[in-house]
Design goal:
By secondary structure, chain A is of the alpha+beta class. Chain A contains 15 helices and 17 strands. Chain B starts with 8 loop residues before the first strand and ends in a 10-residue tail after the last helix. The chains are: A alpha+beta, B alpha/beta.
């Protein structure tokens, strides 16, 4: 910088100090800008106050939080933000804080805004030091009302969940793939373990499940994974004392990875015991009623033998009729007892894969022997196995074929069609007999319903066979249908879901 | 058939294989005794309950058991299990004839169920299937 004229040139030091001043000036300016920017845009409310409690500075967040303008608070005692009756106390408290050697860095409290509403806040105090003296206090106030609300809501939810578990109305536990992580007392009581066992991760639901129920549990786990919940099902747990306890269990997924699920467990021992007693009672009734009947039948045979040996000829086949009547009564009795068992909810089914072709052949062969007037023709074969109770499904086929024979006297042929796909196995029994009217078709699977018509007056039975058959098919997850035209015959079709494995 | 069976009824075929029949129904015992002695050549031993049956097997070795299910004191399944607990009878076949067959129990045992009333031919076929093939049994001399 060269200046002409007589003016005394600046000394070097003068230039330097002037430069320093300007740099300092500029730095102060920059720092001031930075500070203002932070001050004005901070989310937390901030105020600076002197030792007497006069407010020196407030930021926009402060005005927003308290609802007072800058003019309303600046230069005033901070006590203005307190309700009138608290102001004296607030000033005293402030001055005490100012004099304290150390202060709580953060405190939670509640403030009242100018409009009277309250907010929950977290306040941090800090002193500004000048020459080692506290010259001012910085208050940074954070609005935590929303955070508090969420926390409280969360807490309430936790309390509710806790309450649900602790109500102990039914057993509840939370488990991962193997271990039971949490449970209520009701569950511990059902399985006979202590809370200590639970805390030491000693309760594993898989080892508590008897092997015969393992596949059910795996299926439920799969369902929970895929659908989030599983249909409640019955199984057993092995208690700590080794005793088995029958339970009803339903579950829902809590967390996907790693899997956590909540299970609801109901002890159904009493219901099972009652069922057992009912079943025993029915067995007893069955035995008591059938034994004398069986004896009548046996005695008929013995009588016939004895009479035949003495040369007696039964003129009107009375003994044969006696035999037929005894059998008829036995069949009805069996049906009545079976219906009561169905109503009571049991008649447990075996779960074995079996071959339908062979079963059908056996039944057809037997029936062909007793009904030589009809020709039973089987068309088609099944290429897959059916999983279920072979005897029960055999009972269904026997019932359909017996009906077909019974209601098609003199027509000669009964057709049986057998087919299968990967999903379903279908057996149809077709007769060319009297048929069933359209109105009656929808009702013939009802309990105790019998198709009525002038022609059918002479057919014996209680109308339980088709009801029992349809119940058996339903319990195998299948269905049974009828197509019929009066005077032309009927087709009964049984569709069953197929099991794994191939028949051929 | 009005006689009371105090002693086990034993048919007089000392050489033949033994069928032990256990049924509390006297009429049924009478019937089985009649028809089986006519239609087969096995030696028949008939008792009315499981306890008698268990006493008897110390003295003889039946080749087949025909059991009723519903009997006072010990049912046919319990009897089957107690008979088959013994090494000697572990593999001895058995038939259960009853008006009320416990199907679930049958399914887990080597026990053939015959629902009463039954066809005599069915019983005879079953007996032959279980006993006939092991060794040719002596034909009754007419």
């Amino acid at each position: 910088m060269v200046k002409s004229g007589s003016k005394k040139p600046h000394t070097r030091s003068h230039i330097t100090s002037s430069l320093q001043d300007r740099r300092q000036e500029r730095d102060r300016h920059v720092n001031g800008e930075r500070f203002r920017s932070i001050w004005e845009h901070a989310l937390d409310a901030m105020a600076l106050s002197d030792p007497q409690g006069l407010i020196l500075m407030t930021n926009p967040a402060y005005h927003q939080l308290y609802g007072y303008s800058s003019e309303e608070v600046n230069g005033k005692s901070f006590a203005i933000i307190f309700p009138e009756e608290q102001r004296a106390w607030a000033i005293e408290e402030y001055q005490r804080t100012f004099a304290k050697p150390a202060i709580e860095p953060t405190v939670e409290s509640t403030i009242r805004r100018k409009d009277g509403t309250e907010r929950a806040v977290e306040v941090r105090y800090h002193f500004v030091l000048e020459n080692g003296q506290r010259s001012a206090m910085v208050s940074i106030v954070r609005d935590i009302t929303e955070q508090k609300r969420v926390q409280q809501a969360l807490q309430r939810m936790q309390q509710r969940a806790q309450r649900l578990m602790e109500s102990n109305i039914i057993g509840v536990f939370i488990a991962d793939e193997d271990t039971i992580l949490e449970s209520n007392d009701a569950f511990l009581e059902i399985v006979g373990y202590s809370r200590d066992d639970l805390h030491h991760a000693k309760i594993h639901w898989l080892t508590m499940t008897p092997p015969k129920y393992a596949h059910l549990s795996q299926k439920a786990l799969q369902e929970v994974r895929e659908r989030g919940v599983c249909t409640p099902f019955e199984k057993e747990y092995i208690r700590k004392d080794g005793r088995a306890v029958p339970i009803l269990i339903g579950s829902a997924r809590l967390q996907e990875e790693p899997l956590q699920w909540v299970c609801f467990v109901l002890d159904i021992s009493e219901r099972k015991a009652l069922e057992q007693r009912k079943e025993e009672f029915l067995s007893m009734v069955s035995h008591e009623l059938k034994t004398p009947l069986s004896n009548i039948w046996i005695l008929t045979h013995l009588l016939r033998k004895q009479l035949t040996a003495t040369g007696f000829q039964d003129p009107d086949q009375y003994l044969t009729q006696l035999d037929t009547q005894a059998r008829q009564l036995m069949k009805l009795l069996t049906d009545v007892l079976e219906v009561s068992q169905l109503e009571a909810g049991y008649l447990l089914y075996a779960e074995e894969p079996f071959e339908m072709n062979a079963l059908l052949q056996e039944i057809v062969t037997t029936l062909q022997q007793v009904s030589p007037d009809h020709m039973i023709v089987v068309t088609g074969t099944a290429t897959t196995l059916v999983t279920g109770d072979r005897d029960r499904l055999g009972q269904v086929l026997t019932n359909l074929l017996t009906n077909a024979i019974k209601y098609s006297v003199g027509t000669g042929t009964i057709d049986v069609f057998l087919t299968s796909t990967d999903e379903v196995l279908t057996v149809s029994v077709r007769d060319y007999g009297i048929g069933i009217s359209h109105e009656q078709q929808s009702r013939i699977f009802e309990r105790f319903y019998r198709a009525q018509s002038g022609q059918q007056g002479n057919f014996p039975g209680f109308g339980m066979g088709l009801y029992i058959s349809s119940e058996i098919v339903k319990r195998h997850g299948g269905r049974i249908t009828v197509e019929s035209e009066e005077g032309k015959g009927s087709i009964f079709t049984v569709m069953l879901p197929v099991g794994k494995g191939t028949a051929l | 058939m009005s006689h009371v069976q105090e002693e086990p009824s034993v048919s007089d075929r000392t050489e033949a294989k033994i069928i032990l029949i256990v049924d509390d129904n006297m009429i049924m015992r009478e019937y089985l005794e009649q028809v089986l002695s006519e239609e087969t050549s096995y030696q028949l031993v008939l008792v009315s309950n499981g306890f008698e049956a268990l006493k008897l097997i110390g003295k003889m070795k039946p080749s087949l058991f025909i059991l009723d299910y519903w009997m006072p004191g010990m049912n046919g399944i319990e009897l089957y299990d107690r008979l088959h607990e013994q090494k000697e009878f572990e593999k001895t076949p058995a038939i259960m004839i009853s008006v009320h067959l416990p199907k679930r129990e049958l399914a887990v045992r080597a026990l053939v169920g015959i629902q009463n009333p039954f066809e005599l031919s069915e019983l005879l076929t079953t007996i032959e299937a279980l006993l006939g093939n092991q060794e040719p049994h002596q034909q009754e001399t007419p």
